[in-house]
Amino acid sequence: MGSGARRRMTEYADAGDTLVLSDVLEAAGSAGRRVALERVEDIDSTNAELLRRAPAERQAVALLAEHQSGGRGRRGRDWHSPRGRNVYLSLGWRFAPARSDLVMLPLVVAVAAARALKSLGATDIGIKWPNDLWLDGCKVGGCLVETTSSAGGMDAVIGVGLNVGMTGDPGARNIERQWADLRDQLPDLSRSRAAGALLAHLVRAAEAFSAAGFAGFAQDWVRMDVLRGRTVVIERDGAELDGRALGLGAGGGLLVDGPDGPVECMAGEVRVHTVDGRPL
């Protein structure tokens, strides 16, 4: 990246790249008009806030935050959420109660978020099962889907965090794993534009998944799957499983060719520890 690009990234951070709802909605296009968009300055977690609301009060509600004090990732991990640098977005959505394929929803969300990044002009985008977003081989975002059931259906809160302008944030040096910024590739990208693109793709994905399931996302998943064909180490049931990642299993898990044959590892019970010897 050139010095001019680095300078523009610093200027964005110094100026306080505040989210502007009108700009977010403009970037989201018609999909943005199908949700109620809210913005808060400070929150513990956008997912937690929507989950505190009654199901009817979070349906088709999108919540953006400037800062999260208790941002969460999968398996209860902290999600570093500095003020005014990244995108923290949660969307409430209700699905039919009898669906048997809701286990695929986190994968759908990951594909939708990856499509959003591509629409912004980012390249070398990948998905690490189940729903981490990679840019140039490093993590640039993540997704957290939480569900509750009610008489009206299955209520999901879909959370996505994207690193937009993390470079220069003092707290970022404490993140153990390698990470990337969207502005590494797109130095002029505003947070509002990034949030609008993400919102549009999430809304369209929720609608498409409601109508036709995972079929419309499967090919993009295969194309962007960064684990397929690689040697992985899985933490599972208190032990490690070494093998070659084969792609998705029938239940949406990671299919691993282990010593005793293929094993489908489900998201709630495993963690990918290394890929081709690289710690994650």
UniProtKB/TrEMBL annotation:
Protein origin, superkingdom: Bacteria
GO molecular function, one term: biotin--[biotin carboxyl-carrier protein] ligase activity
Keywords: Ligase
UniProt keyword Ligase, yes or no: yes
CC terms in the record's Gene Ontology section: cytoplasm
Top enzyme category: ligase
Annotated BPL/LPL catalytic domain residues: 13-210
EC number(s) stated in the UniProt entry for this protein: 6.3.4.15
CDD domains linked to this entry: BPL
InterPro entries referenced in this protein's UniProt entry, alphabetically: aa-tRNA-synth_II/BPL/LPL (IPR045864), Biotin_CoA_COase_ligase (IPR004408), BPL_LPL_catalytic (IPR004143)
Signal as UniProt keyword: no
Classification via Pfam families: BPL_LplA_LipB
Name the record gives this protein: Biotin--[acetyl-CoA-carboxylase] ligase
